[in-house]
Amino acid sequence: MVDTANLVITRRGGTALEFDRVGRMTGMPLEAVFRLAWPDLSAEDALACRAEYRAIYEETVIPATRLFPGARETVRAIHAARIPQATVTGKRAADCERILRGLDIGDDIELYLGGDSVAPEQHKPAPALVLLAAERLGVAPARTAVVGDTQVDMQMARSAGARAIQVLWGYERAAVPEADETVATWDELRARILSG
User: Fold this and answer.
1) Nearest-angstrom CA–CA distance, 31 and 26
2) Where are the beta strands (DSSP E) in 75-144?
């Protein structure tokens, strides 16, 4: 996300943003990222930046996406245990589904929700995506675990009343205060989810 956003920014004459400044916004609307470079960015220019970002993402990022070692086994073990799974992402839901189906885990996930599944003001860290996933899967939010790698993910989980499990191999490498618990390996995550 950071590299693609910075490519759009520099192509348009802006200065690349620091990795952490953009990375902290993972899951947020793309327009907000571009407003870091240009605070007075018009709505029309923000949409143009988003369209350029999505074209680059489609052409280069999606084909290069790979699973972390251990991800496939974890997703399949959870599916085999009949625990429903959803993806809740800032990406468009169809993009996420296409990526995960291409990585051969799409059939193990029951629901795909993205930034386009809720109104813009309800994107992460608002609880709307988690609440919608819980509703569609027929699970109470309090019986739901949100697994994520950013502070925004953990804030979203907390605001929805779900368990917030932070993985330490994604963007945030140290525990964030909003996480209920942290895991450092896929085996540890699998054990936590399967143990309830």
Assistant:
1) 12
2) 86-88, 111-113
Where in the chain is CATH 3.40.50.1000? 71-194
The conformational region for residue 27 under phi > 0 = left, psi -120 to 50 = alpha, else beta, is left
Phi–psi pair at 181, nearest 5 degrees = -155, 160
Instruction: Return the H-helix or E-strand segment holding 52.
Output: helix 43-56
Encoded tokens for 42: 């018009």
List phi, psi (to 5°) of 122. Answer: -110, 15
Place of tokens 């804030």: 155
Mean pLDDT (whole number) for 18-23: 86
CATH 1.10.150 in the chain, residue ranges: 2-64
Task: Enter the CATH code of domain 2-64.
Answer: 1.10.150
**CA-CA-CA-CA dihedral for 153, 193, 138, 89, to nearest 10:** 30
What is the longest distance spanned by two Cα atoms in the chain? 51
pLDDT tens-digit readout, 145-182: 999 999 999 999 999 999 999 999 988 889 999 999 99
Q: Across 126-189, where does the E strand assignment appear?
A: 145-148, 163-167, 181-183
Distance CA(81)–CA(74), nearest Å, equals 11
Which CATH number does 71-194 carry? 3.40.50.1000
Reported as a single tens digit per residue, the pLDDT across 79-107 is 999 999 999 998 889 999 999 999 999 89
